[in-house]
Amino acid sequence: KGIAIDVDADPKAVFRGERGDFDELVGNLLENAAKWCKSRVNVTVTRSDDGLQVIVDDDGPGLPAEHRAKALERGKRLDESEPGTGLGLSIVTELADIYGGRLHLEDSPFGGLRARLELPAAPL
C-alpha cells in the first residue's frame, strides 16, 4: 500500500539519551502506524520546558480505549490475523520507562490511533 508520511519536527527537540534507543522508540511507533494506517501517518516532534513529545498519528481503524492497556503488554497481540510479535509497543513502553518517559495511546484526529511519547530533552 502507498503511505504518505508527514513529519513536523522542532529542531530544538533533541532527545537526552542514546541515539539507538531513540531510533528504536520512534521506529517501533512508525512501524505500528504504517501497519495499521489506511494511507496516512503524521509525525510531530515538539519540545516543552520539561521534555520532548513525539506524536505519531495514523488514519487506520484505531484502537478502542478498553484495549489500549493490553496493547502495551509484552507479547500481547490484539489481532492474531495480522503478522507481528506483539513486542513493538511494549518495547517502546519499557524503553520510555528507562528514561523516565511515558507512552500514551489516544484517539487520533485522523480517525486512527495516536501514540504520544513523552521523553526527556537535551539541554538547550
Outline of the structure:
The chain is an alpha+beta fold.
How would you portray this structure in words?
The protein has helices spanning 19-36, 68-71, 88-98; strands at residues 4-9, 40-48, 51-58, 102-107, 113-119. 27% of the residues are buried. The model has no long low-confidence stretch (mean pLDDT 88). It has three helices and five strands, in the order E-H-E-E-H-H-E-E. Strands 1-2-3-5-4 form a five-stranded mixed beta sheet, with helices on one face. Helices cover 27% and strands 29% of the residues. The chain has a single domain (4-119), classed as Heat Shock Protein 90. It has 124 residues and is an alpha+beta fold.
Biggest sheet strand line-up: 1-2-3-5-4
Helix content: 25-40%
* Residue-averaged pLDDT: 88
Helices and strands, in N-to-C order? Answer: EHEEHHEE
CATH classification class: Alpha Beta
Number of strands: 5
CATH topology term: Heat Shock Protein 90
Give the CATH H-level superfamily.
Histidine kinase-like ATPase, C-terminal domain
Low-pLDDT ranges:
none
| Total domain modules | 1
End-to-end separation: 40 Å
Number of DSSP helical runs? 3
* Beta-strand residue percentage: 25-35%
Bulk shape? globular
- Sheet with most strands: 5 strands, mixed
CA-based gyration radius: 14 Å
SS class: alpha+beta
Oligomer: single chain
| CATH level-two architecture | 2-Layer Sandwich
